[in-house]
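User: Second chain of the day. Same drill as before.
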Amino acid sequence: MKKKTIAKATATRWLNVLGYSFQSQKQGTYYDGHERPDVVEYRKLFLDKIYSYERYMAKYEGETMERIPPMLESNNKEIILVTHDECIFYSNDGKRGVWTKTGELPLRKKGNGRSIMVSEFLSEECGRLKLNAQQHQENSSIPQEARTYLQPGKDREGYWTSEHLIDQLEKIKEISSLIVNYKVKELQNKIQ
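Assistant: Same format as last time:
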């Protein structure tokens, strides 16, 4: 037999009747410098450079993301753009609101809580830069993926440094050259 529960709307009404209200947790003002004149100028230069490479890159269109190869002259090579992304996730992420008694301030934990940083390399060609199970089995000395985790903090694994990035780039060098070799073999098999 299924237990009966009350609807969310009913619970909300009763909490209001009892003097509680749902409030958003407020954040302070954050300024990241994206609109500084030197940053805006550099962004224009960077985007112009990336745009100049686009004619050498495949495009992906439609709902199925059909791959449309670039039209290359015989002396040109295709460019595959690989991007880097990193993010820090906190244990108190997503806690946007709290029920409080009218006129009372909620007790909030100090800070965002423990965190984990994830650093990853991606491309439209293959998604996450990683080997599939078969490729990894055939090449077990090469790392299976480029993704790196770090538990930041002075009492944990320290902080992300250029050394971490260099270590990750070493993994990427091995993984990407192997992925390219598999792609070349795949294309050769299609041609034959």
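The mean pLDDT is 84.

User: Great, on to the next one.
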